Amino acid sequence: MDKLIIEGGVPLTGCMTISGSKNAALPILFASILLDEAVTLRNVPDLRDIHTTLKLLGMLGCSCEYQDGQVCVRPGSLLPEAPYELVRTMRASVLCLGPLLARIGQARVALPGGCAIGARPVDQHLKGLEQMGARFELDQGYILGHCRKLNGAHITFDMPTVGGTENLLMAAVLAEGETILENAAREPEVVDLAHFLLACGARIEGQGTSRIHIAGVSRLHGAEYDVMSDRIEAGTFLAAAGITCGELLLRHCPVNELKAVTLKLQDMGMKITTTSEGVLVNCARPLRGVDVTTKPYPGFPTDMQAQIMSLMCLAEGTSVVKESIFENRFMHVMELERMGAQIRTSGHTALVRGVRRLAGAPVMASDLRGSASLVLAGLAANGTTEVRRIYHLDRGYERIENKLNSVGARIRREKE
Ligand code: UD1
Question: In 148-187, where does DSSP find H-type helix?
Answer without folding.
Answer: 162-173
